[in-house]
Write a structure and sequence with these properties.
single chain; 5-stranded mixed sheet; mainly beta
Length: 107
């Protein structure tokens, strides 16, 4: 699956949630753009708790700004699959891919 990255440190996720930008240490805030591929929806969390409102619908984009050290968690499912708040607390927490972004001094 093809991923793209531009100069603004933007991540495009695939249906499996893999980022084009490596998790790592950055000297200043970064912007991450999550894009759900056709037929999928992507749930995300930066505080460890998934909520139904933190979702990117099929073929839509959402930009997240990370200005302090955070762990981005991404959980992608087919658009046709019904996801409840309970599912997000159990399945998403176990199956989500995790990416740690450290914001601060780069040595």
């Amino acid at each position: 699956m093809r991923l793209s990255l531009n100069r603004e440190n933007i991540i495009y996720t695939t249906k499996s949630g893999n980022p084009a930008k490596q998790a790592g240490t950055y000297s200043s805030q970064i912007k991450i753009k999550l894009k759900a591929k056709k037929g999928y929806k992507v749930y995300y969390s930066v505080n460890g708790k998934f909520k139904k409102k933190n979702m990117v619908k099929s073929k839509k984009k959402k930009t997240i700004t990370i200005s302090s050290t955070k762990t981005l968690q991404v959980y992608a499912v087919k658009s046709s699959k019904k996801v409840t708040a309970k599912n997000l607390k159990t399945k998403a927490a176990k199956k989500a891919k995790k990416y740690i972004y450290v914001i601060g001094e780069v040595n």
